[in-house]
Specification:
Glucose Oxidase, domain 1, 607 residues, four-stranded parallel beta sheet, eight-stranded mixed beta sheet, alpha/beta, 3 domains
């Protein structure tokens, strides 16, 4: 199988662009492999500290160099539904390791915050930076040099990208990512959206809203809409870091338990002590990253990954751009309709054939690189299958060749759209990205006067006062990574949706962030340069005519360009957003962070 020419051309230019940094990365990993990760590198005192808490039998195994030891990095906490199921995973992994005469240790924990809890709250200003804190936390856990492989337990928005960055930093050892799965289906997504809009209009109260939200997010497991968390799981599978078919199996089921133990067995099978050594630095190469981007487009996934994939790739010495993503979107059919790009949820997607069906379709269509290395073996075709349970044993069968629900998951011959719907917008205001897979065609072109706000709260207040009853392009600035940490701005979706429903032409332009939960409103997001970096967005005034054309890929100021260029930059006192709820601790990251199109990286230059 070979990819089509459009995808090959993008892959080739990524390989060429990344030649120097990728070589530096691989040389570093090769040197570390030669040095070894075996415990003989530790002094007796080092090693004694490393296994002091272990049982005698485990100490005996850890004393030699021939027994593999797994380091577990966990994002467990019992407040967040997606991560609560991880409580018992270390015991399952240790049990599987003992059965293979091996050992496993919890190497460390990483923070896991939930954007659903912090949405519209001060804590959201820490969300994006938590990705890099997670990467550093995982690195500390693995720095003890006790481990032949690592297993990463994480699900949600910044957690998986942070864990991937850490895994690639330790790219000389294998990495297996272990999902916990989505909660069962709750309140239908269209009903949840209806109640949210009624609340925004003041037609229902807080009690009704809370009941609807509680009926939607109701049990352990990941939220079931197709936001960043579930996009993460898709990425880990299509990039070869999950057990095939494991991404969307519900928590607390026999299959989920069996897959977790299978993941541990696989981690042990691919260490340097066996015959299938598969260090993660070799799994995640340019072709795997392209496959990830193809999966993002084919499923209509989270726009957060226009930032995260750049940062994840950079950790492996691979340089990708928004232009790469946009070009790949043009070459990728949209095969999934999962909320907010449809009314179904990820459970419906999984039941319709899920990842195995989709990967099989894309491979047969020449839309994925088949010739990649994965934790499950060579070639992506090994992911065109799904697990079945026979007692407590797993076996794998070929994925279905036809969809189980053509309203949720389509074959490439009946795709919902010819492209993935992600576009790069360019023009005299900078560059940004927009996801149009859920935006109706009649809403993809908006030419209207600007209404400028310096925060999402300002815009919310204007809506409540009735000041936005007009055609407009809302400009929300001073929300970028350097300004306040680039929080998500989903509080703006309901009022903009109401205005659109009333017949007004509306759009959003912002240097802030949205995610896979963005929907029917055309939103030019992640605009760079951001306002505090001297970006043109800081010169826009109320009443300026702006044009957003998602089909042509343009975002423009339409007035006198010379007069616009001569304008002073607007300023804003952001000090109130730099303290409280821990935000003062992140001043260094705000000062160091790169622009959104460079991955909003607050870790500094790696290469």
């Amino acid at each position: 199988m070979s990819v089509n020419n459009q995808i090959k051309d993008v892959t080739d230019r990524i390989i060429k662009r990344s030649e120097k940094t990728r070589r530096i990365y691989l040389d570093r990993m090769d040197a570390q492999i030669r040095r070894g990760v075996h415990r003989s590198a530790l002094s007796c005192g080092n090693l004694a500290h490393g296994f002091a808490a272990c049982a005698p039998a485990e100490k005996e195994k850890l004393s030699d160099d021939i027994t593999p030891n797994i380091g577990i990095i966990t994002a467990y906490n019992d407040m967040l539904s997606a991560h609560q199921p991880y409580k018992d995973y270390p015991d399952l992994i240790k049990e599987a390791a003992r059965e293979m005469n091996a050992t496993a240790q919890v190497a460390g924990g990483v923070p896991s915050m939930c954007d659903g809890v912090t949405q519209g709250q001060p804590g959201m200003d820490l969300s994006l930076f938590s990705r890099d804190v997670i990467a550093m936390s995982a690195a500390i856990g693995l720095s003890h040099n006790m481990f032949d492989a690592a297993m990463y337990l994480g699900i949600c928005d910044k957690i998986v990208p942070g864990l991937v960055i850490a895994a690639l930093t330790f790219g000389h050892i294998p990495a297996v990512f272990v999902p916990a799965g989505p909660m069962p289906t709750g309140l239908p997504n269209d009903e949840k959206a209806r109640i949210r809009q009624l609340y925004a209009e003041g037609k229902v109260g807080r009690d009704e809203l809370l009941q609807a939200e509680s009926d939607s997010y109701h049990s352990p497991g990941t939220c079931t809409f197709y936001g960043t968390a579930n996009t993460n799981q898709m990425l880990m599978e299509i990039m070869g870091l999950h057990i095939p078919g494991s991404s969307f199996v519900n928590p607390g089921t026999p299959m989920r338990t069996a897959l977790t133990k299978e993941a541990a067995r696989r981690a042990l099978a691919i260490t340097a002590l066996g015959n299938e050594f598969t260090p993660v630095g070799q799994v995640i190469d340019e072709k795997a990253i392209v496959n990830g981007m193809i999966g993002l487009h084919a499923t209509g996934g989270s726009t957060n990954h226009t930032i995260h994939l750049i940062a994840m790739a950079a950790a492996a010495g691979i340089q990708i751009t928004w232009q790469d993503m946009s070009d790949l979107s043009d070459a990728t059919p949209l095969l999934a309709r999962v909320y907010p790009n449809g009314m179904a949820d990820v459970n419906h997607f999984h039941a319709a054939g899920g990842m195995g069906f989709m990967i099989d379709q894309l491979l047969n269509d020449g839309a994925l690189h088949e010739d990649v290395k994965t934790i499950w073996g060579s070639g992506l075709h090994v992911y065109a299958q799904e697990p079945k349970l026979d007692g407590d044993k797993i076996h794998f069968v070929s994925a279905p060749k036809t969809t189980g629900n053509d309203k949720v998951l389509a074959g490439t011959d009946a795709a919902f759209a010819k492209t993935g719907g992600l576009k790069l917008l360019k023009g005299n205001l900078g560059q940004s990205v927009i996801k149009i897979s859920a935006v109706k065609e009649e809403h993809r072109f908006v030419e209207a006067p600007a209404k400028v706000f310096h925060s999402q709260d300002e815009m919310q207040d204007a809506f409540k006062k009735g000041d936005l009853e007009q055609d407009m392009i809302a400009v929300v600035r001073f929300s970028g990574p350097k300004a306040i940490g680039m929080p998500e701005l989903h509080k703006l979706t309901p009022p903009l949706g109401i205005l659109q429903g009333r017949g007004y032409k509306v759009a959003l332009v912002t240097d802030g962030r949205m995610s896979g939960a963005s929907g029917k409103i055309p939103a030019a997001i992640h605009l760079t340069p951001e306002a505090v970096d001297g970006g043109p967005i800081a010169k826009i005034k109320d009443g300026d005519m702006l044009r957003l054309d998602a089909e042509k890929g343009t975002l423009e100021f339409l007035g006198d360009q010379a007069e616009f260029d001569a304008r002073p930059l607007a300023t804003q006192d952001l000090s109130s957003s730099h303290h409280g709820l821990g935000r003062e601790l992140f001043a260094g990251m705000r000062a160091l962070v790169s622009s959104a199109d460079k991955g909003a990286n607050a870790l500094g230059e790696i290469f």
